Amino acid sequence: MASTTTTARRESPARRRVLDTARALFYGEGIHAVGIDRIIAEAGVAKATFYHHFPSKDDLVCAYLEEQLSSVRQLAVPRGATPEEKIVSVFEAIGEITCKPGFRGCAFINAAAEYPDPGHPVRRVVDTFRRWFRDTLRDLLIAAGHPDPERTALMLLALRDGLAVAGDLDDPANAGPAVRSAVARLIGTDAA
Amino acid sequence: MASTTTTARRESPARRRVLDTARALFYGEGIHAVGIDRIIAEAGVAKATFYHHFPSKDDLVCAYLEEQLSSVRQLAVPRGATPEEKIVSVFEAIGEITCKPGFRGCAFINAAAEYPDPGHPVRRVVDTFRRWFRDTLRDLLIAAGHPDPERTALMLLALRDGLAVAGDLDDPANAGPAVRSAVARLIGTDAA
DNA sequence: CCAAGACTAGACAGATCTGTCTGGTAATGT
DNA sequence: ACATTACCAGACAGATCTGTCTAGTCTTGG
User: Fold this and answer.
1) How do residues A34-69 score in pLDDT, each as one tens digit?
2) pTM for the complete prediction?
3) InterPro entries this protein is in (chains A, B) (predicted)?
4) Interface test with B, best of A124, A165, A183 (most B CBs within 10 A)
């Protein structure tokens, strides 16, 4: 069937290897800095096979970011009983990732820095991520009965961006706790 | 004298044109995306002249960021009577820049995204900027008698980073006010 | 048994990248 | 008057970039 063919192609081993290699190299060294030749060499894939699965490099970049998107969505699932706990748990999860060795900042922020054109497909994936995260925070704040969910969601998003940047450029050990107490100050009962 | 020669070289018209062009192109389109050939063409400078002033592209990139650094230092001078007002004024200044059309995010964050190696000269300029900003905020908080200046400075730095990212990737009109009230919440008298 | 598709190996084209080099002009200061 | 220096114009080298193409192997479903 058509669906079988599609599934087979999507889960092809060569394609999988290319995507894994692309994620490691794009994230670790930057997108423009990594050429197709190097990706296919390290993935052990022929050039024709690569261009069979990905019509262009931009398609690979989009696929890489879309995988990151679904990965983050799974990892940053809110846990806890109350909406406040859920918000904190999301930041705890991000904070842990952010302090890990090998952390190189937010894949979406970094990618956007290399794709200035707001209409580019890559930027659209970035937009999807940011809208999802903002809406998630807003909904949690609404559920928590926060008086100003819309604006507070923007504050929290800004804090997350700052945490991601600091985890890459500054000392992650300091940034994590600081951002966490900032979140507490912003959504704490005293703020309401 | 040597100093005369040095001054003449540093203020040479060709060098000035190269730096202006580099700033516009690097900031607007990304660093790896802009080649030397294009910079010298748009600056109207011969290739030999370029390599006379800048031994390599990396030197130009560093010079570009160092100019941004001193420019920000002049622009973000704290104004106002009280330390609280000074902190807010710095964010007001940054907020205005951030909402301007043509804003493409923080030049240092964007550059760091393209230079993953923390030991690279480019990253050292980025570090200088971040240390300066963090120390400035911390000193203002100390002057304001804030109980936790060190950690609060990190929070404010994270907010600034988030504001810069949001001004580029999201709707700047929303991000500005949100971050400003977040600053108020974090340094407000109730926080003390 | 055989057709189709996934895959490999690698040459090739055309553009672009950084950086070097030659050669010549113009201004400047001593 | 002369040496130095800034500058221009552009060829050139060698590497690397994306993307195409040929040609052949291997696997698998019908």
Assistant:
1) 999 999 999 999 999 999 999 999 999 999 999 999
2) 0.92
3) Homeodomain-like_sf, HTH-type_TetR-like_transc_reg, HTH_TetR, Tet_transcr_reg_TetR-rel_C_sf, TetR_C_31
4) A165
